[in-house]
Amino acid sequence: MRTGRGTHFGFTVLVGAMLLAAGCASTSVGKTWKSPALAQLPPVKKVVVVAMVPSDATRQQLEQELVAKLSEEGVQAVKSSDVLPAGAKPDKDTLRSAIEGQGYDGILVARFAGIHEEVNVAPAMSYYDYFGAYGPTDYSVTEEARMQVSLFDARGENGQLLWSTNTKTYEPSDVQKEVPGLAEAIVKSMAKDQVVGSAS
């Protein structure tokens, strides 16, 4: 998290107390969407996990962590790197060909959506600032690593979307350390929505 000071018309702003401590990362899961079709489909019990991220090492780690967390929910999960030909990219046609006839009913895709910066400010309670006095501005910039997570149906030809969400990992200074928490947050959200687990 970066901090600084500038000039802003009408406000003296302070770093908000609600900000995460510098260097301390955490993952939040946004709103989720769940297809009504899930109510008519058999439970999702066998899933191939696909991580679409820039680093191959991170891909392997994230897929492995998701597989482990899904297994805790009673789902038979496998990494895409274990079903695809060596060196193959996990594109739609290659993946469909690799899992065809293998009994998979779901494809979980976690796609890296970039690093975003969020400027955090909070107005100070000052009579003079309220009426437009000039003053210093304190601010902080928090980095967010965003992921788009989607579960697709592997049983039909159209591969319809069954469930989706977005995640934000704040201050991702050490990717390897953040991956387990990211995977846990994703699968917890899926279990909460009864997409996986004993209630699915």
Question: Describe it for me?
Answer:
Strand 5 (46-52), helix 1 (56-72) and strand 6 form a beta-alpha-beta unit. With 200 residues, this protein is of the alpha+beta class. The protein has helices at 56-72, 92-99, 127-130, 175-192; strands at residues 2-9, 13-14, 26-29, 33-34, 46-52, 76-79, 106-120, 122-123, 134-153, 161-170. Helix content is 24%, strand content 37%. The model is unreliable at 5-24 (pLDDT under 50). The radius of gyration is 21 Å and the shape is globular. The strands form two sheets. Strands 1, 3, 4, 5, 6, 7, 9 and 10 form an eight-stranded mixed β-sheet that branches. Strands 2-8 form a two-stranded antiparallel sheet. The chain contains four helices and ten strands. The chain has a single domain, classed as 3-Layer(aba) Sandwich (Rossmann fold).
Characterize this entry briefly.
This protein is α+β, with helices and mostly antiparallel strands.
SSE topology sketch:
Layout: E1 2-9, E2 13-14, E3 26-29, E4 33-34, E5 46-52, H1 56-72, E6 76-79, H2 92-99, E7 106-120, E8 122-123, H3 127-130, E9 134-153, E10 161-170, H4 175-192
Parallel strand pairs: 5-6, 5-7
Antiparallel strand pairs: 1-9, 2-8, 3-10, 4-10, 7-9, 9-10
Helix pairs in contact: 1-4
